[in-house]
Amino acid sequence: MMKSIRVALIGDYHADAVAHQAIPPAVQLAATTLSLDVSADWIATPELDQHNLNDYQAIWLVPGSPYLNDAGVFATLRWARESGKPFLGSCGGFQYAIVEYARNVLGWEDAAHAETDPSGRWVIAPLACSLVEQRGSVTFQPGSRIAKAYGALQSDEGYHCNFGVNAEFSEALATQNLQITSWDLEGDVRGIELTDHPFFVATLFQSERAALQNRLSPLVVAWLQAAAG
Fold first, then answer.
1. What pTM does this model have?
2. Does 119 have pLDDT greater than 90?
3. Rounded to whole angstroms, how far apart are CA atoms 90 and 200?
4. 92 to 1, 10, 103, 215: CA distances (angstroms)
């Protein structure tokens, strides 16, 4: 009998967003590959308090920042990190995961995202060159969850973003349980994971875009595997 799981896709849906078009088929392709019956509920951020996230086996904070309910997103990120709930973040989900970790693990109370906070400590800052609808090579740390998911140490990935990790803080971010495990060819941070969590992976690139060419996203497969236990 096929195992059934429920996953939450957290974000404010936009029909014209390429990543949002890619996410449902990415989940379905991965579910089929894993022989899972996956029910994926899209939860708009203003409606987060209307849902019990314990009802879901995994959480994906999808692209689309700034979110309509930043406070709810940060609370959800902290809960996923502290509860051990399998978590995937892409693009905006990656950016917000970095800010939440900086605030609540490293104790940087003024840690901020430049897109939404003009006065804080910008751990997420404007990129030197926009990555809106761009592609590029990324490399993976050998032995990392991302590398294991891909079965490779490099990939070509797509983006839709203008913000990323502020290089001034990269070294300080990776001093406790956060591990930087993906970089672009210039050495800028493109993916992180938590070493003290069953599955907490976030990337600036949007691996889900592979589904638009009917290809598997290795990270979505790995996320669903974690969700299925």
1. 0.96
2. no
3. 11
4. 36, 11, 17, 22
> pLDDT digits over 149-192, tens only?
999 999 999 999 999 999 999 999 998 899 999 999 999 999 99
Whole-angstrom distance, CA of residue 117 vs CA of residue 106: 19
Query: CA geometry: angle at 50 spanning 229 and 124, to 5°?
Result: 70
Q: How far is CA 194 from CA 4, 33, 38, 134, 135, in A?
A: 26, 26, 25, 27, 25
Instruction: Tell me phi and psi for residue 188, to 5 degrees.
Output: -80, 150
Q: Can you point out the beta strands (E) in the chain?
A: 3-10, 36-43, 58-61, 87-90, 111-113, 121-126, 134-140, 154-159, 163-165, 178-184, 189-194, 200-203
**122 backbone dihedrals φ, ψ, rounded to 5°:** -75, 90
pLDDT tens per residue, range 68-78: 999 999 999 99
Closest to 181 measured CA to CA, from 133, 221, 150, 141: 141
C-alpha–C-alpha distance, residues 155 and 225, integer Å: 21
The closest of 191, 181, 187 to 159, measured between CA atoms, is 191
**Residues 146, 201: contact at Cβ < 8 Å?**
yes
Q: Which residue in 62, 49, 70, 60 sits closest to 8, CA to CA? A: 60
pLDDT value at position 2?
86
C-alpha–C-alpha distance, residues 172 and 175, integer Å: 6
Please compute, for residue 178, the number of CA atoms within 13 A of its CA located in the half-sphere on the CB side: 26
